[in-house]
Specification:
Elements lengths: L2 H18 L20 E2 L3 E7 L2 E6 L3 E4 L2 E4 L3 E5 L16 E7 L2 E6 L3 E2 L2 E2 L3 E5 L13 E2 L2 E7 L2 E6 L3 E2 L2 E2 L3 E5 L17 E7 L2 E6 L13 E5 L16 E7 L2 E6 L4 E6 L5 E7 L3 E7 L2 E6 L3 E3 L14 E3 L3 E5 L18 E7 L4 E6 L3 E2 L2 E2 L3 E4 L1
InterPro entries: Delta_60_rpt, Quinoprotein_ADH-like_sf, WD40/YVTN_repeat-like_dom_sf
Pfam family, one: DUF5122
Keywords: Signal
Length: 382
């Protein structure tokens, strides 16, 4: 190669590396590659994802998974090696959709619209073995409604969803269980006035988001609230969530809420609930993760608006930047980044999860392509 050619290559390499550094953010903040990793493809919508070490657990409405030129039966649950992309043998079979997954040690907790897993009766909530997929003998609950989100932390499993009764007792769409025994944590009984779509834990707080007017009737808890491990509202956090919250993530700078509304919103809040920045889309934001100081957003939008003003059916009134189903923003200030891993379809992305250990994140949903290339319903970036 000529000197001029080497110089051009060096300049291109430096420019590409510089493009990964976020404006105004620490040098460690980098944007994922736009091209996703090779992964298996799914014949139905992916609704739940969770990392545990090198394993990615997947749940949804699918009944088969294609990998390495072959198709394998997988009834709404599957597992993938997140490093190699290989489909794993883990194959418990749910008889209804799986909406939520959380992992703790050897336990994989799943929630959804099922009544049995691998022929074992379980009412919308179950504990599975992370290796064999066997149904554990705990979590034999009776639920009216179902979990939409699960968080496993501190020896407890926190669940939020549409549940209105648990073992015959009235509850307010939130519950907590002992991870080992499945016993209900009797003292943890917060009540949301509407559906809870997202539950995440950070320190001694449990953040919950959804379409509720309040939790425990407290002011400043509309659509988004912080709860204590004792089940009371943490008054150190006041909600400024303007619309229904569909997804939540916690980052180094605060809380991030994927919201619906006229168009859609991604709201960034401090740990006291003060608004830091907002992105507006022309469709709902439905999932969000934070990885390496970048906020990744998924939903059924086609554009990110240049202002907060939206018109009929959420259209952007002051111009837009094309971002189809996926977008990325600078965590420190909310600047929209040039990362554009465009998906397709109408409902788009339903779930996202991140692995700081692997420096990867995953998006699952109803899309079948990413940047025009086949990526049926699951895409991992890193």
């Amino acid at each position: 190669m000529t000197f001029r050619g080497k110089l051009a290559g060096l300049i291109a390499s430096v420019a590409a590396s510089a493009a990964l550094l976020l404006p105004g953010a620490p040098a460690l903040a980098v944007v994922a590659k736009v091209t996703p990793d090779p992964l298996p493809t799914f014949n139905g919508t992916v609704l739940a994802t969770a990392y545990a070490g090198d394993t990615l657990y997947v749940g949804g409405d699918f009944t088969s998974v294609s990998s390495g030129g072959r198709t394998f039966a997988r009834s709404r649950l599957a597992a993938v090696n997140a490093r190699t992309g290989a489909l794993l043998g883990w194959a418990p079979a749910a008889d209804g959709s799986v909406r939520a997954i959380a992992v703790s040690g050897r336990a994989v907790f799943v929630g959804g619209a099922f009544t049995a897993i691998s022929g074992v009766r379980r009412d919308s909530l179950a504990r599975l073995d992370a290796g064999s997929g066997a149904v554990h003998n705990s979590f034999k609950q009776s639920l009216t409604g179902m979990p939409y989100s699960l968080a496993a932390v501190g020896g407890r499993l926190y669940a939020g969803g549409s549940m209105t009764s648990l073992n015959g007792q009235s509850i307010g769409r939130l519950a907590a269980f002992d991870q080992n025994t499945g016993a209900v944590v009797a003292g943890w009984r917060p009540k949301a006035s509407g559906s809870v779509n997202a539950v995440v834990a950070a320190g001694r707080r449990i953040y919950v988001g959804g379409s509720f007017g309040s939790v425990n009737g407290a002011t400043g808890t509309r659509n988004l609230a912080a709860l204590t491990t004792g089940g009371s509202v943490d008054t150190g956090f006041t909600s400024r969530a303007s619309d229904m919250v569909r997804g939540l993530a916690v980052g180094g700078s605060g809380i991030y809420a994927a919201m619906g509304g006229p168009g859609g919103r991604l709201g960034a809040f401090t740990t006291s609930g003060v608004g830091r920045w907002t992105l507006t889309m022309d469709g709902d934001a439905q999932a969000v993760v934070v990885l390496d100081r970048v906020v990744y957003i998924g939903g059924h939008f086609d554009n990110v608006c240049k202002s907060a003003r939206t018109g009929d059916k959420g259209s952007c009134l002051d111009g837009n930047t094309r971002r189809i189903k996926l977008a990325a923003a600078n965590e420190s200030g909310g600047a929209l980044l040039p990362w554009a891993a465009d998906g397709n379809g109408s409902s788009g992305v339903h779930t996202m999860a991140a692995s700081p250990r692997l420096h990867k994140f995953v998006a699952g949903g109803a899309f079948t392509t990413i940047r025009g290339a086949a990526r049926a319903r699951l895409a991992q970036f890193g």
